[in-house]
Each structure stands twice: as structure tokens, then as C-alpha cells.
Design goal:
Elements lengths: L7 H15 L21 H22 L6 H7 L4 H7 L3 H24 L5 H15 L4 H10 L3 H28 L13 H23 L8 H14 L8
Length: about 250
């Protein structure tokens, strides 16, 4: 995947914009960005608010540019902080990235668990999941997985792999297992896949459809809606691309 190259002026403009859009105090109105303040002078509430602001800004920058392209100086500037103040909340960039991805996986897991509690059939639940993920994910899933695999230490990678398994794969595998139990999907003995294998295949296909949406968005064709892409994903996953009655 080819990454865009940004000049210093582009980066400066981007980070200044994010600083004004994301680092505003939460209490009403358009105000100046968060003032630089010694962390020892902050109250507990201010410390927590600063931490959440850092996570919000870091999420946007990491997901847009990738782990390697974002520096702690850029992160600190975007939040109106000094680098030492940033390090007071997160000891290094990897720890901040871990916190960002941990929060993102927790949000996705909560949403997927809500979807699985619906009374729909397994194919319908899979469509809901695909539509949610294709519409919710505002970043390149392949880029995130690349950063986790190649930019993180083995210890952090293991932590994130476990969180990804519990946050994404387990809820989706539960839908496939439910579909098999209710006779809506084929079991392994009938030629189908085990629930966890099916869930991993689902996520691989989701990654492909995400890239297709991004590719189409950059061309004249325009991106397909999440619902349209979700319908196509589940239809191909469950029925393939052969015409009805064809081998």
C-alpha cells in the first residue's frame, strides 16, 4: 500500500487544524486551544481530560498517517502540550498507540455484542456487523494491522492480538456458531467452516471491501454505501460468486 508523502507545510497545517478542532475544552463555545500547563498544577479532572484529548488526537493521527509517520512532538503540538507533559501521561509513543488501539477495540467489541443480542438470523446479523464495521471504521484496517505486526514490540503485539481476538473475532464467531446450531449455516461435517475459521475469513473479506471502498472513493465511481458493501460481502461469503445451480 502506497502512503502519501506530506511536506512540512502540509503536516503543520494538518496538525494546526486538528489542534483547533479536537483540543478545545469540552465546555461550550469556540475557545482557544488548551493552554500549556504544568501537569503538577492540574486537578484530577483536568488530568483525565488532558489524557482523553491526547487519545482523541492520537487516534486521528495514527489512523490517518500510520504509527511511524507521527512523532511525539507533532502529537504534543496538536494538543497544545509540551513533550514532557505528553510523556507524563504516556511514557512513549508505543504506550500511547497501545492505549489508542485498546480503546478502539473496546468500542467495537461493545457494539458487536449489542448486535449479536438481536433476534435476527445469522446471515442478517452478519450483514449488521459488516455494515457497522464498514461504516464505523474511519481508517485503513490494513494500515492498523500492519502497524501492529511490524511496528510494535513482541509484548505489545501479543497484547493487541489477544484484544483483537476477544473484541472482533469472538463476537463474530458466536454468530457463526449460532447459525450452525440453528441450521442456518453448514457445520464442518456438512462442508462448512468452524466458527472461528469463518470469523477470520469474514474479517479478511472485510479488509478487502474496506480497501475497495477507499479505492472507489478516489475514482470517478465513488464509494459504495456500507449497506451495499455489507450485502455483497455476506452474499459472497455464504453463497460464492457462481450462478445459482452452477458448480
Amino acid at each position: 500500500m502506497q502512503r502519501l508523502t506530506f511536506t512540512y507545510e502540509h503536516r503543520y497545517t494538518t496538525y494546526q487544524l486538528i489542534k483547533y478542532m479536537l483540543c478545545l475544552p469540552r465546555q461550550g463555545g469556540i475557545q482557544e486551544p488548551m493552554a500549556r500547563k504544568n501537569h503538577l498544577q492540574q486537578t484530577h479532572g483536568e488530568i483525565e481530560e488532558t489524557r482523553q484529548t491526547i487519545l482523541t488526537v492520537a487516534h486521528r493521527l495514527f489512523m490517518q498517517y500510520g504509527y511511524r509517520s507521527v512523532t511525539t512532538r507533532q502529537l504534543a503540538d496538536a494538543c497544545g502540550l509540551t513533550q514532557p507533559a505528553l510523556y507524563h501521561h504516556f511514557p512513549d509513543k508505543q504506550a500511547l498507540y497501545l492505549a489508542v488501539i485498546t480503546e478502539e477495540i473496546a468500542r467495537v467489541k461493545a457494539a458487536l455484542e449489542r448486535i449479536t443480542r438481536r433476534s435476527d438470523t445469522a446471515p442478517e446479523l452478519l450483514r449488521h456487523v459488516a455494515s457497522f464495521l464498514l461504516g464505523r471504521i474511519e481508517y485503513d484496517l490494513s494500515l492498523m494491522l500492519h502497524d501492529v505486526r511490524y511496528e510494535m514490540s513482541s509484548e505489545v503485539r501479543q497484547q493487541l492480538d489477544k484484544q483483537f481476538l476477544n473484541g472482533f473475532i469472538v463476537p463474530i464467531a458466536g454468530i457463526f456458531g449460532q447459525g450452525i446450531q440453528q441450521g442456518q449455516l453448514q457445520s464442518v461435517e456438512e462442508g462448512g467452516l468452524a466458527p472461528f475459521s469463518a470469523a477470520f475469513m469474514f474479517m479478511n473479506m472485510l479488509s478487502f471491501f474496506t480497501r475497495e471502498q477507499q479505492r472507489n472513493a478516489a475514482t470517478y465511481s465513488g464509494p459504495a454505501s456500507p449497506t451495499t458493501s455489507a450485502d455483497a460481502l455476506v452474499r459472497i461469503l455464504l453463497h460464492g460468486i457462481a450462478r445459482n445451480g452452477q458448480p
